[in-house]
């Protein structure tokens, strides 16, 4: 067989793909990244990098690139705004995010297009080849992996030792590799939109809030930009969709659970409004002969706890270490990545389920149920230890913190 054109071909130049490319290129491998978009656009995806994910960025050598991304902000407080609390009560209950993980300043708020651009530049600087505007990627797996694609009206074939699929939730690489996903059923659909709020919202604050039929997530960025989300039950008789979505979306923020709520509801839309299900997906076989999957292509976490960016960076770090430490790249030699990811995603599914249960969104008799669960947690704080996984990472709590019995115990409170 002729010499390979690259050691690694990464299909997908998003967060996971470019972070992996930057680390592997810095480690001396020849890496080609194939990206569909010529210019990165707003896809209403991951705006918050929780503290444990920033530590992964440090390990990958891309943290500075992230901190220099356009409109990046550091969020240091989580305020639990809620229909059962006054604004002042919620603010007194704020959680300090700056101390969640040593080395991380808090939650990093950064636009998805800006983050992808920053990481693509980092990959290029490290020596990777990033090709944009790619169309019609088809793969050939082991024993002689290759990717055939179109760019600028020309068909090319890139031979390699391993193909990495980093091409998102609807991954064509995953489909071609014959890898199936397990999924949970969504109870909530989340709509998101980027707005200009004129600086009304405190840039140091994020929230996951609930009022009536709506669940809210607010992620601030610099330069007056704010990513707003509204979640509604999948059984809601009036879901957010259709021509009136933007007006209804913003009006939903006209609620006194927030400070300056009238000004917040009057924010100016500056991006698309998109809706997607709040569920989990995973595979226990992210590596098959000739192909490895990372990021959303290998499965994702329920967006309610904003783990997506951190998962992508962790995938990039664990897989890059396995590739750089092994001379042969087989499912057996990369089993450490597969096993770690499987266990990690299981823990994050538990943490999301625990977060969801304690929030009580869409549950009957929410106020009374919350009161009983909180009383139980005050008596047995070990039942809530897995909540720390959201900001500190899935390995911060011991294995017993993820026992399924905990969810049953709290649900029956």
From TrEMBL:
Segments forming domain FAD-binding: 6-347
Superkingdom of origin: Bacteria
Name of a matching Pfam family: FAD_binding_3
Xref: InterPro entries: FAD-bd, FAD/NAD-bd_sf, Geranylgeranyl_reductase
Recorded GO MF terms: FAD binding
Protein name: 2-polyprenyl-6-methoxyphenol hydroxylase-like FAD-dependent oxidoreductase
Organism encoding this protein: Nocardia globerula
């Amino acid at each position: 067989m002729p010499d390979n054109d690259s050691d690694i071909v990464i299909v997908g130049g998003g967060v996971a793909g470019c972070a992996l490319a930057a680390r592997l290129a810095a480690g001396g491998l020849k890496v080609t990244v194939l990206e569909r978009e010529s210019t990165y656009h707003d896809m209403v995806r991951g705006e918050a990098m929780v503290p444990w994910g920033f530590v992964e960025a440090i390990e990958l050598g891309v943290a500075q690139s992230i901190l220099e991304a356009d409109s990046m902000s550091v969020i240091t407080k989580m305020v639990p705004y809620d229909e059962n609390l006054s604004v002042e009560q919620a603010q007194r209950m704020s959680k300090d995010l700056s101390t969640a993980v040593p080395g991380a300043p808090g939650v990093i708020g950064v636009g998805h297009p800006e983050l992808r651009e920053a990481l693509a530049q980092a990959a290029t600087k490290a020596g990777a080849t990033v090709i944009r505007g790619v169309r019609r990627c088809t793969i050939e797996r082991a024993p002689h992996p290759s990717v055939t694609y179109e760019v600028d009206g020309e068909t090319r074939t890139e031979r390699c030792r391993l193909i990495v699929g980093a091409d998102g939730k609807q991954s064509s690489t995953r489909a071609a590799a014959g890898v199936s996903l397990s999924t949970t059923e969504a109870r909530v659909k989340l709509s998101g939109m980027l707005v200009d709020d004129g600086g009304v919202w405190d840039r140091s604050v994020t929230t996951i809030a609930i009022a009536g039929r709506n669940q809210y997530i607010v992620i601030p960025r610099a330069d007056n930009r704010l990513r707003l989300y509204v979640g509604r039950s999948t059984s809601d008789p009036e879901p957010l969709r259709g021509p009136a979505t933007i007006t209804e979306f913003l009006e939903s923020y006209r609620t006194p659970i927030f400070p300056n709520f009238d000004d917040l509801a009057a924010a100016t839309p500056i991006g698309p409004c998109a809706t997607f299900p709040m569920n989990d997906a995973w595979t226990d076989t992210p590596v098959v002969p000739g192909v490895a999957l990372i990021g959303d292509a290998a499965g994702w976490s329920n967006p309610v706890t904003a783990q997506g960016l951190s998962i992508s960076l962790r995938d990039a770090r664990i897989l890059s270490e396995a590739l750089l430490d092994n001379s042969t790249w087989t499912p057996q030699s990369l089993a450490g990545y597969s096993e770690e990811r499987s266990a990690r995603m299981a823990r994050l599914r538990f943490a999301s389920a625990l977060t969801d249960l304690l929030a009580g969104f869409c549950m009957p008799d929410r106020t009374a149920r919350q009161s009983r669960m909180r009383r139980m947690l005050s008596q047995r704080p070990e039942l809530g230890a897995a909540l720390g996984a959201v900001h500190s990472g899935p390995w911060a709590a011991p294995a017993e913190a993820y026992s399924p019995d905990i969810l049953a115990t709290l649900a029956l409170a």
